[in-house]
Batch of 3 targets.
Target 1
Amino acid sequence: MAVATQMGIERSSVIISVFSTTPGIGKTIIAINLAAGLAHEGYKVCLADLDLQFGDVLNYLKLTSTNTVAGAQRAMLDHPETFNVRDYLIDYSNAGVKFSILPAPLYVFDAYQTDV
C-alpha cells in the first residue's frame, strides 16, 4: 500500500495465504472457495496459484491457459517498462461469481526457473 499511496492512489488490499507443507489436504479447494466466496460478496479477487510444482487451480476449474506466473516473471524481468500483470491473468466466471487467476507454471522446468 505504501507504493500506491506514494503514487497518489488510495487503495486498500489484503493478501490471504493458504499454505501447508502437507500435500493433499485441500489447500487448492480452500483457496478456490475462499476466492469465490469473496468475489460473491463483491470483492475484487485475484487467486495466485503459487504451488509452483504441483499447482492445479486451472485443472480444478476446468480451465486452460499458457499464461502462468513463470511467464509473468520472465516478462517483468525482460520488459519492466511495458510489463502488466493483467496480461497474464485468466478471468473465471461461473454463476455470477467472477475472479482472476494467475496460474502456476505448466511445466516443472518452469517452476525451477521461477523466483517468487
Note: The chain has one domain: 2-112.
Target 2
Amino acid sequence: MPLHHASDAQRAIDLLFKDCADDSNCAETYPNLKEEFNSIVETLRKENINMEYKHPQIDSAVSLTFHEYDFTESIRRTMYSQAGQRQVPYLIHEFYKKNYKVFLDWIFPE
C-alpha cells in the first residue's frame, strides 16, 4: 500500500465534508455528515456489523460481516469518480440510519 494512501484518503473525505458544509443543499440535507461518518467508523472499530443481503441477481440472501475497513475502503473507492463523490453523503447517511441495503446496493451493483 502506498505510503500516503491513508493520509490522502483522509484529506479526500475531509474535503468532501467541507464541500458538503459549504453547499447549502448538502448542508441542509446532511447537517451532521462528519459526525455520522465518525460514529460509523467508531462503531465498526468496536464491533463488526452482521447483516443479511439479497442482491437483485441472487435468489437467496447472503450473510455479510462488515468491518471498519470494508466501510472506509468502500467510501474511498466510491470517491474516485465524480458520480460516486456525489453519492457519498447519501451513502454515509443511510448507513448511519442502519439502512445498509442502500450502501450494499451501491457497492454491489447489478
Note: The beta strands are 49-53, 62-66.
Target 3
Amino acid sequence: MRKVTALLVLLLFAGIQVAFAQRTVTGRVTTSTDGSPLPGVTVLVQGTTTGSLTDADGRYSISVPNNQSVLRFSFVGYTEQAVTVGSQTTINVVLQEALLQMDEVVVTALGITRQAKTLGYSATTVNAVAIAENPNLNVGNALMGKVAGLNVSAPTSGPGGSSKLRIRGQSSFGGYNAPLVVINGVPINNSAESGGFGVDYGDGLQSINPDDIESMTVLKGATAAALYGFRAKDGVIMISTKTGAGSRGLGIEVTSGIVIDKALDFTDFQYVYGQGAKGVRPQSVGDARSSSSICFGEKMDGALVWCFDGKQHPYSPVKDRLGFYETGLTFNNTVAFSGGNENGSFHFSVADNNAKATTPNSKFDKKIIDFGINQKFGKLTLQSNINYSIEYNQNPPTSFQQMGIANTVYTTAVSSDLRWVKDMYEDPVTGNEYTITNMAYRTNPYWAAYKRFDHRTRNRIFGNVLLRYDILPWLYVQGRVGQDYFIADSENNVPTGSAYLSSAPAGQYNGEYSIGKSTFRELNLDFLIGANKKFGQFGIDAQFGGNAMDNLNKAVSTSVRNFYARGLYTIENGVTKTPTQRYSNKKVNSLYGTLSLSYHDYLFLNATARNDWFSTLNPKSNSYLYPSVGASFLFSEALKNMMPSWWNYGKLRISYAEVGGDTNPYESTVYYSLQSNAFDGTYPY
C-alpha cells in the first residue's frame, strides 16, 4: 500500500508580525444549552498564532488576513468548532458541550496507560493532528490555546528561540518553573540554552518534529506528576512518538509547509512633531545624530532637513518604522515511511526545516531523523525510539543593549528611516561603525546585523530501548534504558570598530571574540513490574519500579579581548585571553510504586509513592519521599438511572500530594572558583 499526502500551509506568523490586507471580524460565543455567553473562549486563526479571547459577554474581535481564513473556537468542556470567514464581518458561534469519552485511554506518569475515568487528577490529552497542522519550529508553541491552565509564551528571539511553558502559573519566585518534558517515558533536557549578550539558542522541544508525535498528554498538579518526584513540581508534558502502530504494508507520507513571517508594529507614535530638541529641528548632521531618538522638534512640514546619514531628507513622517526588517520564510518538509504486520510496526522519518528570520542575516536550520519500532516476539515486546537532530542558529537576536537591534529600531525618531544607512553601516575610511547617534547604547542595526556574528551548532540524539515480558496475561516486567545527549559548539564576536567599545592600546585593535563547546548527557535506567487484574466488581492496577539517573553537564570556552591584526577573529590573534571551564555531575536513585483500586467502574482510589536519594545532598539526609493519594467518584455512572437526560457526565475527585525540588551539584558545600586574568593581571589595590 502506498500512501502519499501533501500538505501546503501558507500563513502569516510571527512573534512580531503583520498581515497584508487584514480586516476585523467580531462576534459572540454562546452555549447550546441556554444561550448564555461563554467568556474565555479561545479564538484562533487556523494555522497561525493570531488569537483572541471572548470577554465576559462572550464577545470577541480578531484580525484575519483574507476570506479563506478559518477561525477555530475552543473551550474546555465544549466541542471545538471551525468556521470559514468568507465575506462575513460578524460571526456568532454556538458551542456544543463535549461528551467525555469515559473509555478514552491516556498516557500517564512513567508511560503507564490508564482509562481517563479512573484518574483522580487532571490529565489533558492534546490532539496530535492539531499540533502537526500548526507548523511551528518549536513544538511548545503549538500548544498555545490547546490546554486549559497551560500558558505558552512564543519567543521573540527568532525562529530558533525557546518556548516558555508554565502550568498553572509560577510555582516559585526563582529557579526553574517549567514542566518536565518526557518523551517515550524518558525525561529530556528542555531548559533554554543561552549564550553571551543575552542570546536565546532554544530549548529541547525544538529538536522534535511535530509530524513524528503520536500523542501528547499534559499532567497538571502534584498528584498527577508525583511519580516523577523532584522534577515534577511544575507538572509534566508526556510525548509519545510514532512507531507505525496500526500500519499494514508500507506507507509513505510527504508533508510540506511554508510560513511567511512579517514584523508587526503595535506602537502608537505621534506623527505631528519630528526629530529635534527644544522645539527645533536638526540644523546639522551632528544635531541629527544627537537627537536621533528624540521627537521634540517642530511640526513636520516636508521641508529638507539634515539627517544622521549625512544627507538631507524631507521632514516628514516615516510610518514604516519596521522597514528595517525583512520578510521571513520558513520551509518545513518531512518524508515518512511506516509499515507493519500483526506482530509489529515501524516508523522512519526525515525532516528538513529552514527558516530565514525577519532580522537581516539571521536564520535557523535543523534536520531531524526519527525512528520508532514496536515488535512482539511471543511474550516478549521490543520497543525503541531514536531521534537525531542537527540544529544551526545564525545570529539570533540579542538583548544586550549596545548590540541590540530592536532597541534602535523601536527608538528611532518618527521622521527618520534606518534604511538610509543600509549600505553605509561601515565607515569607508576607518572601517569602524558608521554611527547614527551619539548614544553608546544605540548601535547602527545594519552594523550589528552584518559585522557581528553569533553561530551555534547543536548535534543531539535522544531515545530509548524498552523490553517487556508478559509473565501472565495480567502480570508483566519491563526494563528500559534511555539517554539524552548533545554537543553544542558556539562562536561569537563583538566586531572591531563598534562605537560603544573603548579604544585599544596603541598597535592593537578593539573587539571581542569567543568560542565554546558544551556537552550534556543524561542516562536513565529503570525497571517496572506491573499487574492489572479484576476480582468480580473490584479491580486492581499496581506497579513497582526503580530508576537510576546520571546527569552530566560540562562546558569549556575561551574569550579574547583586543586583537593584534584587524578583522582576524581567532583565539591566537587575541591579546587578552580568558579560558573558562564548567563541570557538574548529579546522580539520583529512586524507587516508586503506584496502586489503583476500582469498584464497579465508578469509584476509584489512586495512591503513589516515590523515594529519591540525591548525590547533591548530605549522605546523612539525602532521602526524600513524595507521596500522593487521590479518590474519584463517577456519580453520573453510579446514579445513571437517576440522572436527568441532559446530564451526560459528572465526577467528583479529591487528591493530596507532596513534591519538591533538590539542589544543584556542589551547592551544599563550600567551594572556590578559579579566575584567570583577574583584574587584567594587576594587583586589585
Note: The chain has six helices and 34 strands.
